[in-house]
Amino acid sequence: xxKTLLRVLAGEAVWPPPVWxxxxxxxxxxxxxxxxAGAKDFVELCLTPDLxxxxxxxxxxxxxxxxAILFSDILMLPYALGxxxxxxxxxxxxxxxxxxxxxxxxLDPAGVPGRxxxxxxxxxxxxxxxxEATLIGFAGAPFTVACYMVEGEGGEFPTARTLAYxxxxxxxxxxxLLTTATIDYLAAQIEAGAEAVMLFDSWAGLxxxxxxxxxxxxxxxxxxxxxxxxxxxxxxxxxxxxAGLQLGAYAAATGVQxxxxxxxxxxxxxxxxxxxxxxxxxxxxxxxxxxxxxxxxEATASILAAMRGRPFVFNLGHGVLPPTDPETVATLLxxxxAG
Length: 339
Ligand code: CP3
What we know:
Bound molecules: coproporphyrinogen III
Shape: globular
Mean pLDDT: 97
């Protein structure tokens, strides 16, 4: 019998649905904070297989999640391309910004295999350890990763989004470079043991319709098509966060097996926009999980009611928030598993 998450991504309406949570390994878990305190910094944690394997498995041990997502970060690809990356304590990521074609020439795509080797080693070690959980590899989508590379930090990315209009030659080259690098990176993750892959386009919803098609849909379609060619049978989940009414166009153009839906999406409407056999994944508000109690119960019940009978993976609409109580996560899992 195949793993439940893989059955859902193959179009089956498994009930109760498989469940995992974005950022299920992270600061809300005391056992994560303990490992994190022993690593030099966050990048070092991602690049040390002993530690990355351990924190990937922590939420499986505690909750028996149906998926293990590789512990890494979407910004490890810019790191692997030779752009400096550091996580300033309490401030989020910092990269030396790249804003012109000369900046692109300084990147080192030939160095990627060497720099991602420890990440692939983490996957190779995880695969025999995940049991009935599905091992998910991931990457950031080209647009979201480009936002950080151009801006040099998080936020609303005013420089990156303006530059996409002002210097389309530069932006096109950056997106193309990232599309190619992402295909190779995800293919390498599959070859190292990932059973499914997820593409995080966290900032897709910042785009107007024309750039959405150009910088979100087209690159995701290229990535999905090429991965299907290289690794037929390995499913992909696309997560174009805040895509709103463009969700259907994204699903149709990419042919992904699963579509992640964010907190703002009405589940019934998503179900119409993305019909079976494509699976949906989401979308409990991380704040409802933080609050717990009746608010969480009501929100969870309404998602389950809307998704019953179609291929569905229960998840959040965005990542677990650090102040979340680990006990509340256990309560959530009990409700989902009761169907
Ligand atoms: O989901 C998982 O458990 C797997 C690991 C994972 C991380 N980041 C670990 C992480 C995944 C899949 C990501 C994806 C990621 N990273 C995204 C896309 C999803 C999303 O949240 O929108 C983005 C935009 C990033 C970039 C990023 N990484 C930021 C902005 C930050 C700093 C802010 C923050 O939440 O701390 C990170 C750091 C990061 N990535 C942490 C973790 C566990 C916290 C690091 C720490 O321990 O201090």
